[in-house]
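User: Can you write out an input/output pair for a complex, sequences first and structure second?

Assistant: Here is one pair. Inputs:
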Amino acid sequence: MSTSSFNNPVVKWIDERLPVFTMMQHSAVDYPTPKNLNYWWNFGSLAAFVLVIMLLTGIFLAMSYTPHVDHAFVSVERIMRDVNYGWLLRYLHMNGGSMFFIVVYIHMFRGMYYGSYKAPREILWIVGVFLILAMMATAFMGYVLPWGQMSFWGATVITNLFSAIPLVGQEIVTWLWGGFSVDNPTLNRFFSLHYLLPFVIVGLVVVHVWALHTVKSNNPTGVDIKGPEDTIPFHPYYTIKDFYGIGLFLIFYLAFVFYAPDFFGEPDNYIEANPMVTPAHIVPEWYFLPFYAILRAFTFDVLFIPAKLAGVIAMFASIILLAVLPWLDRSKARSARFRPMYKWFFWIFVLDCLVLGYIGAQAAEEPYVTIGQVATFYYFAHLLIIVPLVSKLENPRPLPESISAAVTKSDSE
Amino acid sequence: MRKIILSAAAGFVLLAAGNAFAAGGAAVPPAKDWTFQGIFGKFDRDQLKRGYQVYKDICAGCHSLRLVAYRNLMDIGFTEDEVKDIASEYQLPAPPNDDGDTIVDGERLMRAAKPSDHFVSPFANEKAARVANAGAYPPDLSLMVKARKKGPDYIYALLTGYKEEAPEGFALNEGMYYNEYFPGHQIAMAPPLMDESVEYEDGTPATLDQHAKDIVTFLAWTASPELEARKSMGIKVLLFLVVLTAMFYALKRRIWSDVH
């Protein structure tokens, strides 16, 4: 039995039997956090916040949505028109998807800049890679549900990617569809999975936070926590900082919801799905564009691998490869602050991802194809060649002795 | 199945073609001023009523508006009685009579529409619409403003962008019309509006420009009936958030003042 330090008799009684309050005290109040975290560290809690918003709005949307090819489109419009505040729920959810990716991409780049993936945070990082994969699957299936033209044709194009698998590709696609084209069985299973996967994400988030609280947060210096003088309790310091971040984020998010709700969407998705009419452009949602560019960069066969399969492999590899980043980067210094060469390559990599995103939205014609191929090559070169090589060649600047030493120094500067 | 694969592949190809097409095929619609734009944007009630009149007298002959119910017209200023009268002008298939029949003497039993019914479509189905329109299918207009890039400007430009003659060398197909703003320039819809297409009840001068603006405004409302509620809620929510966030910031400064 744990010896509870709570005064309230009810809290004490519960805590001695199930130490939830002790756990809360440990992980949300006392949790020692580096005192020098900057605002880039707000994006983890923001991601959790968006996840909760997505779950809540999604659960209420599902109460009025009909996953049937004849009714899905109209049922979404019913939500927009006849359900009390249905338009608000739907626009929150729709834009929440985009916000989730904005926040998580920044969170990932932050991890890459400050070396948060390095020992002892490898598993924390790998769980993160699973999280982004689960998010992508969820977002893709969610986009199919309104059953607009882009929903249908996006689903057709993306599920068809699996036909590139040798020998059994076509059978796998039929199996995914539950038929011989994207149709009612596909919509039904996508709805089911779109409701299931967010709870898988919640589970992964619990593991992600568990791992985080085991190894503790990284910080802008990348130096380990040496003692209590380096940390402050999570509450009230980081609770209030996270609240402030949430306030700023909500202003940004809700400005879109209220004043430009269709900014991230495609007009074509306000046309009901029609298997007989192919839209002029089939473009994925913006957050998939860099990966779409990588997929399309392979216009040529790679040795014995046909172009289409090579593109599919490259697309999945571009994300999965991130999981081995802790072993590709051998540098002793974590933070790019003390890595004069890596810092530059990091920003070039960010730029490369933006270029890929831009190319993903362009037509498959010159000069975009060539630019896309160069940018794709660079993406993989960064991870497989530049990062390992830089970590060998580079001489990191001297690291501060401790977090508090670094903080006092920067204060006196 | 092969068809689906091929069409998916065609999608990839069209992705290329479509972009080039969009770039070179149609003029960019000029930006117009709309009352419903901006943070404080609102619909002009008189304009909505005029737009409804244009829809009813002109567009409704071919275009459906299936997502809008007659009762929704009360939101743009019609009274309950007026809406009942409007709805009752339209006929819908009736439920079976007491004998269980829906067809009596070879005629389908019909009933008058009620305010709770959605706008009755001009054609029974897509085939009937195509038969009546030389093979073309007039699309539903409920969401048209949201279903096109720069929706309001595009629809205004389309309605006013007809040219009597196609430019020299342009192969215009039989029964098609030349329009500057329609992708590919060939449109099956005859110029629907001209000066004095509709005589306005409120005495507003009946010009093509006015007709086009009014119908675009009406269709902007059918596409986003929540627009006014959304924008007015938005101001309150954002003002609240600005104050709340400022307070969080002040609190953050205060709490952090003893660190270092």
